[in-house]
Structure formats: C-alpha cells, structure tokens
User: Fold this.
Amino acid sequence: MFTKYSKKTETLFLEPSLEPKNTEQNVNIILSPSFYWVKKIFLPLKRARDVKKLLPSIFEEILPEGNYSYAVYKKEEYFLAFAYEDREILEFLAKAGISVAHVANICFAQTFFSEADLPLRISKERTLLMQEGIVVMVPSSWQISAKEFSLDDRNFPKQTITLEKFNHIVDKKNIYQIGSLLIFITFLLGIEFFMVQQNRDEILSAKESIFSKHNLKPTMMQNESMAKKYSALHEQQMKFRTKIGTIINLRLKPNEKIDSISYKDRSIHVIFQSVKESDFKHIAAALEAKNIEYKVDFKDSMAILEVQL
Assistant:
C-alpha cells in the first residue's frame, strides 16, 4: 500500500499484495485493479445512468458469484463500466485498520492514472500497465523499464464511488421479493386493523347498552366512586345479616325469649325477656364465638343488648 501525505489527507493505493498501512488520518483511496472488474462498452446511449441499469446483465457472464455494485463513466466514444464488491473492500480496510469514517474519497486506478503515468512498478512482483485503454496489473518481469511508483500532488478525480456498507447483506436480486413480502404484510396488517376497528365499534355499542341498562354514569371515575359506595353498603349489609342471624339463632332457655329487635344509628338493639345478668353467660359465649362485639345492660329481668356494625 503506497501513501502520499498532505496537510489534510493521505492518498493510499489499496492493493491486496501490499502490506496494509494503519492510519488514523483522513484518506483518499485509489483501488488497485485487483478490487474491480472493468469493461469498455459501446452503446448507442447518451447518459451513463441509462447504461448503469444494464450493467448487471453485461457483467453477469464474467463475474464470480457475489453481490456487486456498479459504476459507469462516459468517455469520448464509449463508456467505462466497473463492477466491485463493497464487502471485499470494506474487509480489507478493516484489516488495514482504516475506519470508513476516515475515508474521504475512493476512486479506481483506471480513473486516477493516465496513459502517460504508466507503466508503474508498485512492487517487485506487480506493475500497473495500460492495455487498450484499460489499466491492468501484470507481473513486473513484463516491464523492465517501468517507472518507480509514487503518488504525486495531482487533484483527486471527480469520478469517485461510495461503498455501500450493507450491500452484501441483502442480494439486490431479492429486493423485489422482500418488497412484495412487505406489501403483503402491510395488507394483512390493514385487514387486522379493519377487524379491530369493527370489534371496537361493537364493544363501544355494547358498552353504551350496558351503561343505559344499569343506569351507569358516563365517566369511569363516577362509576368507580359508585362502585365503592355500593361495595361498602354490601359489606355493611353482610355484617348486618351475619350478626342478626347469630342473634336469632341463639339457643335460649325455655323461659327466655327475644322481646324485640331494632336497628338504629348503625347499631342492632335486642331486648331479651327473663334474662338476668347471672343468666347471660351462655348468650355472651355464643356472641364471642362469632367475634361479635357488644354492650349489654340489665334492668329488672331484661337484658338490653347493643351490637355495633
């Protein structure tokens, strides 16, 4: 890997046969022909973007299996078309310790070097050579008179490429299939949304019917308040029933009886006839067995019982 330093950036020649150079500076990268395929194309088209659409088919027969990106530049009478694998270049940059974030520009050796620059000896084994207008890599033994490689201060060419970091993850041939699948999923979600909307309308209608039937309030807060009120009332009534049931089912002696039962100020009042204080023990035991708290007064032969709810 050859390097040219400037105040702001380095220019690197990226070649797999050369030892990678670790750098933390911003860099411009020249790709060796080892990283791409190039073809001259003669087509009756004027715009490079129209030619680019045809490149997958044009390169299909010569490229090994892989996921490729393409570039094309117009020359005087023909187009220069390139195919390259982003993944291969990205992996080599990572191996060289060069962060993609530090890469300013990337170009092909084809667009950087002119015929006047070549041949260039980049190592003892490799030399860059121009053959029929195409920059190629050949064994150095083919060109004894090749110039020694150096990177001058020329401006970097405008014909640059941008690496697609995720291009190798999804095969472009499958994009339409994935798109169709996403459209189908969207369609299913649309149907699901429609069904949920219908169910929602039915639930709201049923809710209104229930609210009307049971005279419920329009807001949840009001209904919760009402529910608490009735829950407390229900609890009070259950306590009342339990305590009244216990009192009514007391086992009294033959001469004892309940004269009256009344309810006032959250208290049950019971008057027992023929029950003196000395006779109240069996009644007290029955009440305490049910954990019923009470107060009792005695008057003549009556026991006056008060049970708080």
About this structure: Residues 2-169 form one domain. The helical segments are 48-52, 55-59, 86-95, 109-112, 175-213, 220-248, 281-289.
